[in-house]
Every structure is written in C-alpha cells, then in structure tokens.
Write a structure and sequence with these properties.
about 160 residues; 7 strands; three-stranded antiparallel sheet; single chain; 4 helices; alpha+beta; two-stranded antiparallel sheet
C-alpha cells in the first residue's frame, strides 16, 4: 500500500481480521478474486472518510494464473497483468509497459519478450533501482514477492545503503 502509513496499517489489520474470520467460518482460505472484491468493498464503505491508501493486491486466481488488482482510495479497482503504486510509479510503469508488455516499441512486438520469472525479476530490480535513484520518496529497500503455483518466495533488494 502506498499513501498514509497509519491508514495502510489500519486497513491491513482490518483485512487480516476479516480473512481470519472467513477462514474460521468456511474452513478454507478466501480466493484472491474474493479478497479483491472484499478490499474494494472495504475501501468504498469508507469513501466519505477514506483510507488514504493506494493498493496493489496480487495472487493467483481460481485457475492458478497470476492476477493483480490496482485500487484507488475509494475502492475503484481493475485487474491488470502487472501494476505499480506509490511515488515512483510514474517512473516504473512506463518501463514495465515497454519491457514486460512490449508496448510502445519502435521495432514492434517482434522483439523478444520476457520468457522466465527470473528475467522478469531482473528487469523489475533494474527498474526499481533506477526509480530509487531518481525519486527521493522511494524507500531504501524493496521486497519482491514471486508467486507461482508451487508457492512463493521473497527477494529483497537494497536500494540505498547510505
């Protein structure tokens, strides 16, 4: 979540409690699309005094494919192939569009794309390191969560050591 840290912490606590409640009531974890709808409803409910957060929710859908949801402060959301949020997003999004989705290419889409998860992670690390150098509000460390059908792992990238 980007935005006000206190609101992000409060929102995460609220969502965590609702996820635990769901798991106790139904004996299973909530699917990512269901969590996406719950987050949108939660944000919309607070629209007159909103959480000042701009969220990205990622996970696997019911078919095991990756899904990313991007939200504004009042719960409007859309499913994307990838997304960014925060002060550095204006630097990161165009590069991801170019390098991951192969949009806005001079030579067109015939250029080779990203074939592996590790290639995508390397591009993302390069983009975030560049954004960290240009945007003073981007933090010192980035946690990259890599989700696959087999599970997930975390990769930590130090942007600044000063």
């Amino acid at each position: 979540s980007a935005g006000m840290q206190a609101d992000a912490i409060t929102l995460q606590k609220n969502l965590r409690a609702r996820l635990v409640w769901y798991e106790h009531q139904h004996g299973k974890t909530m699917s990512t699309p269901a969590i996406a709808q719950m987050l949108g409803n939660t944000l919309y409910y607070k629209r007159f005094f909103p959480y000042y957060t701009f969220n990205i929710l990622a996970g696997l859908d019911n078919e095991g494919r990756g899904c990313v949801y991007s939200y504004d402060a009042i719960g409007s959301h859309e499913r994307l192939a990838y997304g960014t949020s925060g002060s550095g997003s204006v630097l990161v999004q165009p590069t991801l569009d170019s390098q991951i989705a192969r949009k806005n290419q001079v030579k067109g889409k015939e250029m080779p794309g990203v074939n592996t998860v590790d290639e995508a992670v390397d591009i993302i690390k390069d983009v975030l390191a560049s954004a960290g150098e240009r945007d003073i509000y981007t933090g010192d460390t980035v946690e990259i969560y890599i989700m696959t059908r087999d599970g997930f792992r975390t990769d930590v990238l130090r942007l600044r050591d000063d």
